[in-house]
């Protein structure tokens, strides 16, 4: 029996989704983050990484002076977005999961402080993608992790979001390899400072699609594979999965294409997926 004041899960999720969207928008549906707060958060991220780890950055000369630009990278840890922020030389926006099951609850408020465009996995995420395209159209920078979540410790195929953004906006892509971040806190618990590295590759693209809807989807998949290959070149071969330079690792990675939200809608079915 439903108790007084209790709402069905779907209704609550949709209500929260619209509430978040309305809070992040003006009457013209324009996303406006807090720039001053972001400068503080960026400084904190840079400082903490240098204090807590042996923090290395390689390839900073590859950063363009301005956008439009899509910044992509592997996603093995909840620390990956702060790593992006700590090295970016310009203000940037993020597309990220509306639900972050792999991030400790104690830090889940930080992405909301920064402000980002929420994606509900298993949906079209129309608001986030359209707003990101508007930002790119104005010469902005958008960060996105093409895999769609930190589900594993090896590279997996891209979801269509990053490919769709470059095809629709004409923005170039800059790949980033993040190395060692999942070991940061486990190593600190041993009273050691871990070595972590951010490797920045050269920009590539842009891409475009044409033809029927079926043709365009196949082209988006091809663009996604191209994106992941560029990322794989910036991380150790054993982490490259299906995109590794080592054929033995590619062979052993068959089957890792699994996407845990396949067939589910995050705003409706989030309780069906349990993180171990």
Q: Could you characterize what this model shows?
A:
The protein has ten helices and seven strands. Helices cover 37% and strands 13% of the residues. The protein starts with 8 loop residues before the first helix and ends in a 7-residue tail after the last helix. The protein has a seven-stranded mixed sheet, with helices on both faces. The protein is α/β, with parallel strands linked by helices and 276 residues long. Strand 3 (93-97), helix 4 (110-114) and strand 4 form a beta-alpha-beta unit. The model is unreliable at 1-29 and 268-276 (pLDDT under 50). It has one domain: Glycerol-3-phosphate (1)-acyltransferase, CATH 3.40.1130. The protein has helices spanning 9-23, 35-52, 80-87, 110-114, 126-137, 161-169, 184-188, 213-232, 247-252, 266-269, and strands at 54-58, 69-73, 93-97, 117-119, 141-144, 172-179, 195-200.
């Amino acid at each position: 029996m439903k108790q007084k004041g209790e709402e069905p899960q779907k209704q609550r999720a949709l209500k929260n989704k619209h509430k978040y969207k309305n809070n992040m928008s003006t009457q013209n549906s324009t996303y406006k983050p807090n720039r001053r707060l972001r400068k503080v958060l960026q400084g904190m991220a840079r400082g903490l990484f240098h204090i807590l780890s042996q923090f290395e950055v390689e390839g900073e000369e590859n950063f363009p002076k301005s956008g439009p630009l899509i910044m992509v990278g592997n996603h093995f840890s909840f620390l990956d977005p702060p790593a992006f922020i700590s090295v970016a030389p310009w203000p940037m926006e993020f597309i990220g999961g509306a639900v972050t099951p792999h991030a400790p609850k104690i830090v889940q408020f930080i992405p909301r402080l920064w402000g980002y465009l929420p994606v509900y996995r298993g949906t079209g995420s129309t608001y986030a993608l359209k707003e990101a395209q508007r930002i790119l159209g104005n010469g902005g920078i958008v960060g996105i992790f093409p895999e769609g979540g930190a589900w594993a410790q090896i590279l997996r195929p891209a979801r269509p979001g990053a490919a769709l953004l470059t095809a629709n906006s004409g923005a170039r892509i800059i790949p980033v390899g993040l190395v060692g971040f999942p070991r940061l806190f486990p190593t600190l618990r041993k009273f050691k400072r871990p070595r972590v590295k951010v490797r920045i590759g050269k920009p590539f693209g842009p891409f475009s699609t044409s033809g029927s809807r079926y043709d365009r989807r196949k082209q988006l998949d091809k663009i996604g594979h191209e994106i992941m290959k560029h990322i794989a070149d910036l991380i150790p071969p054993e982490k490259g999965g299906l995109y590794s330079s080592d054929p033995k690792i590619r062979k052993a990675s068959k089957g890792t294409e699994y996407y845990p939200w396949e067939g589910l809608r995050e705003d409706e079915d989030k309780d069906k997926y349990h993180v171990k």
